[in-house]
């Protein structure tokens, strides 16, 4: 098996270039940062019958994600640098069709993704905390405020709904800047998340607490999110290629 590795604001993914099949057990072993390669997930390229690029996104716990903003930017970088893709092309994910644009192929690459339309549910309250359920092709719970124990709360809220959810804790810095901390479904504490940044921006623009464009500041860095009046989302941010990795065949077979 061979992988191409890159990160987007500290959120790292492996693109499967050769080998397979992937199984949940093998995915967990590969993503293990102590006994495997280590990664926040695996991107498995494919194609539809009409030639459209297709992407399966695997969480480090072996489950499949519908959509990943950082993963899509990393996949777009790989398509451009390795697959000789044009500067703009569509990608089909389990969470819907998106459009990727490579604005600059200089390192770090500057990539924009049309992430689709968000849906933002009315505010709810849980344990005295206000939050919105948001979908951007995958589920999110956007919570107002960043408590000191947000990691523990995030772990609990992830499993508070069937199928689990991504969780974000958010503070308003000004009308165009939000600070967010991310608990990602299937991965846990994450330095950054593209789909989470989109969910955060959509929720706060929809409520009137923020205005587009929104800079979402996360532990790994910032993403710029443009939110239309209809909650269509455009995400822009960097990708840094790291290396290629070849997996010992006997190790892969032992962990299937």
Question: Can you tell me about this structure?
Answer:
The mean pLDDT is 97. β17 (221-227) and β18 (232-246) form a beta hairpin. With 256 residues, the chain is α+β, with helices and mostly antiparallel strands. It is built from five helices and 18 strands. Helices cover 20% and strands 46% of the residues.
Summarize the structure.
This protein has 256 residues and is an alpha+beta fold. It has 5 helices and 18 strands.
Strand order of the largest sheet: 1-2-3-4-6-7-8-18
Helix share of residues?
Answer: 10-25%
SSE series: EEHEEEHEEEEEEEHEEEHEEEH
Beta-strand share of residues: over 45%
Largest β-sheet summary: 8 strands, mixed, barrel
Give the strand tally: 18
* Low-confidence runs: none
Distance between the termini: 12 Å
Coarse morphology:
globular
Give the structural class.
alpha+beta
Mean pLDDT: 97
Rg, alpha carbons: 18 Å
Individual helix count: 5
């Amino acid at each position: 098996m061979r992988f191409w590795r890159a990160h987007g604001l500290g959120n790292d993914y492996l693109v499967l270039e050769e080998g397979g099949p992937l199984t949940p057990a093998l995915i967990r072993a590969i993503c293990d940062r102590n006994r495997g390669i280590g990664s926040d997930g695996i991107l498995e390229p494919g194609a539809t019958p009409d030639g459209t690029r297709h992407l399966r996104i695997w969480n480090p716990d072996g489950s499949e994600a519908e959509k990943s903003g950082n993963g899509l930017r990393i996949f777009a970088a790989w398509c451009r640098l390795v697959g000789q893709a044009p500067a703009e092309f569509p990608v089909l994910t389990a969470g819907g069709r998106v459009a990727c644009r490579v604005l600059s192929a200089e390192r770090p690459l500057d990539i924009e993704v049309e992430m689709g339309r968000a849906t933002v549910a009315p505010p709810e309250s849980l344990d005295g905390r206000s939050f919105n359920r948001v979908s951007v092709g995958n589920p999110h719970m956007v919570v107002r405020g960043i408590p000191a124990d947000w990691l523990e709360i995030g772990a609990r809220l992830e499993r508070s709904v069937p199928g689990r959810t991504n969780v974000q804790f958010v503070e308003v810095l000004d009308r165009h800047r939000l600070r967010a901390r991310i608990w990602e479904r299937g991965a846990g504490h994450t330095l950054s998340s593209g789909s989470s940044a989109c969910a955060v921006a959509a929720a706060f623009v929809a409520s009137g607490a923020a205005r587009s464009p929104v800079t979402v500041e996360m532990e790994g860095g910032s993403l710029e999110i443009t939110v239309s009046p209809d909650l269509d989302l455009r995400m822009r941010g960097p990708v840094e290629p790291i290396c290629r990795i070849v997996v010992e065949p006997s190790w892969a077979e032992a962990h299937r």
